[in-house]
## 1
Amino acid sequence: MTRTTIERQYDDDTPASVAIVDGISTLEGTDGAATTDELGFRLYDYVDPEALDTIVAEGSGAGDVVVSFRVEAYHVTVTNAGRIRIRFRE
């Protein structure tokens, strides 16, 4: 059975935007360092990666933050607690 959901964690060494691409790469069955050509999309086409990383960074003073958006066939949820959930939209 194909895995349709994956959870990742991010931190100062691996920002949320990088962990999202890694997670989608895993679900797509490609290398974790997949290029935009291999994946067929750029994260920037769906969300500003730098803004996302800033919003969910620990210690940003924003309180509890949850950001959800769609990337291709996936629904992505990111929290400022360092957690990412990527789910295939059926």
## 2
Amino acid sequence: MKKIIFLTLTLILVNACSRPSDVDDRSEEYAPGKELAGTYALRPAYVNESIDITAEGKVRYRKADSATREGLAYRNRFRLIIFLDDETEPTGIFMLNDRNPERWPGFWKGEVRFIDLKAN
């Protein structure tokens, strides 16, 4: 009987003291920095669309037939996230490990899009 109580208490303590797995990304968020700053073209697009990202995280979205929109960008260990104006949902999400010199796939306004570096 003592063994059963001891095993039960041991299992409870091990379970209570074990570290829960953290599924959410809680890494630090910071400005994009020089390596992600630049002017990017959104592809595919019916009209010219571009995104200017500064090292400090300021974003300017330009579409040929409409006004310019301002926003903010930040990055963490995994992705670059862009918010335009006062939107509460991200406008763009681009995974850092998907980036290559020619194309960077990601999501823009819920669609799969590519951004191409135009100028740095």
## 3
Amino acid sequence: MATSIPPAPSAPGQLPRPSLSQTVDVETPELVVLSYTLAGVGSRATAALIDYAICIATFVAVIIAVLQLQVKFGVAASRDSSGAWVMALLGVIQFAILWLYYVLFEALADGQTPGKRIMKLRVVKDGGLSVTFEASAIRNIVRAIDLQPIFLYAVGLVTIMSNARGKRLGDMAAGTIVVKEDLVSQPVTPRRSSRADARADTSKPVPLSARLTDAEFQLLDRFVQRRMEFDAERRTQLAAGLAHRFSAKLTQDPAQLPIAQLVRLHDTELAARAQGAAARNDTGAAREKHRIVATNAPRWASFANTLKSAQGGGLSTLGEDGVRRFVQDYREMTADLARLRTATRGQESSDLFYLNRLVAGAHSLLYRRRTFTLRRLITFLFADVPAEVRASGLPIAIAATLLFGPMAIAARAVITHPSVAATLLPQGMLARAAKGVEDAKRGKGYIEDPEVYRPMMASQIATNNVQVTFVAFAGGMTAGLLTCWALVMNGVSIGAALGLYISKGIGSLIFSFIAPHGVLELTAIVLAGAAGLLLASGMLVPGNRTRRAALVQRGGRAFRLLAGAVFLLLFAGVIEGFVSPNATLSLQTKLAVSATSAVVLAIYLFYRPRAALPATARLAP
């Protein structure tokens, strides 16, 4: 009867490469290939659940605070504006929990949310470098598509499992991967049993080759390590089978049982490998692999301890001299990794896996992204964003057509046939228009909310509009279908509302409300739509690039358009909350605000100082 030896647990001091784990290779600036272990669906899901729990707990705390403040300020809101300001602030906090939790943690904590930190996961760029704010924002805004349907994350799970690099749609757009970051805490110094130590004779030269191949030694090693787990009969059967297989390598001593001969052979082979002897049948560079490990294992262990300390507190904890030594050691480690990879000839090895994890950890630490500064933010908003707007004329023109075309058609349809409004608009808008006829006669404005509520209004309007632009951007990952739908439906809604008020003879009522903020808000909608279309073009029309490279490159460009849209919406929200509903301001005054915003917007987008020309040049596709 054939016998087999069950897989053994890892030997002390060794870490076997996970056989079921997916890995991805990246090349460092030192031209050394690193293998990262991709995070599995289970660990990512667990990290997500932890983050969800944190978000929900924070959200509940905010809701409780809102309810308490409503009790305190609600009745006296007309006399005390502090309550409205607090409510507005809480609205912004809720928005931040929903959209900014992941972005800020990943961008500021080097790719780790609290959930990912607990699960020892990290988001990195495809090249192994630290994730940037831009990449973090892109992957987490596209989460709006990944979590469909209704927070069940079915889209994300399907794409992760069907992608060789475990990417969801957000990772594809951002050019990121999620990797495991377990650092081996024990060095891989080859094991030597006490029996082998006792028999070692340092006066004898190290043998050039061991008597067993690596595969044979692994088989023997598994048996010796687990022999006591078998009952006596099973142990005897396995020992007899192995003794027959290794008969030519065993010391033929009739006084010894087969199991004793196998243990002695194991100790001899273990001692030889610990001193760097090559395995039998190894040729060329492969003969060096055990010697590389035996010679350098102490230095690797020391580097592992330094790396663990630096990962906990940053490179600054090492001091100037320590950082200099760390960089020097890192370069030596990359050379060791290249030599060991050549010696193992691409085969899986616990030593190679261990050394790869050390170098990968140091690589991520050394090439961590620069600190985000106020100066960089200003450069981004006032140089990069306008430059991208000027460079993206085609998607902007298409987005404008999809917005203003349906807007004009819907407005004309409702003006010509007012009954069409009931099909295109919700009942609430129809009722507001009917009431608007009477309000216009009394000299009232489009909205008659008390002035004290305007901070809260501005907060709600701004956060809602920003979320709409996020959806339009993320819709680019549906090949642009969701983006086009969002633009068309927004155009129809706005056009139908305008047509309804005009058909009732109160067009000035809605124009006086829209005019102050309309220029900024409509421009922002167009930019967000253009961002989604630009993202979709990376999937549909990659040009000379691969589809993956085009998607990442245009995703970065699209993010700049989206950032411009959000920037404009912040100002539009303030104007819509404080100026647009103010009935004491005349239509001429509001038109003047509109004209001023248009002039400022034109200067912002199209004024090209000489210093901005390099920014434009680097955006060329």
## 4
Amino acid sequence: MAEKKKTDIDLPFFKIREDEEGTFVKVGPIEVVEKTGQEAKVKFGPLRISDSGVKYEPALNGRLEGMAWATFFILIGCVWLFESMYDFNLRGFIPIGIGVIFLSLNYIRSRVGIEMSSFTIVLGLVAIVYGILERFFEDVELLPLLGIAVGVYLIFVFGREASK
């Protein structure tokens, strides 16, 4: 009976060693799976890497949105804490932060292969504009800005449909 070869993979921060059967290795967040008759797969967090390419778990978008919500609550808490401790008004920082969170969420979606939401892109841009206007001007109405945002969004949506 031929002796089975073991595969050792040396990565910069850790090493992967093959198990006794030679079919499964898991070190930290990385899981290497090789099934007979199927292509070898490497699971690294939410990513699935194989010979056919890199795929993401469908639940990744939900996790990203959850992290965006967590960032939102951290932002709110930090602004309120700073305002109460130092008796200083940070007018406009929350809308700017919300806009940055929306745009960052869509940037991350684009980097991992998830379709971006054009609606949250437009809302993110409107939130940043509103925050800047609120920071430097006393009275800024939100309703006209939301009307402009909905109009811009509809132009993009119908423009895409017309180009198909």
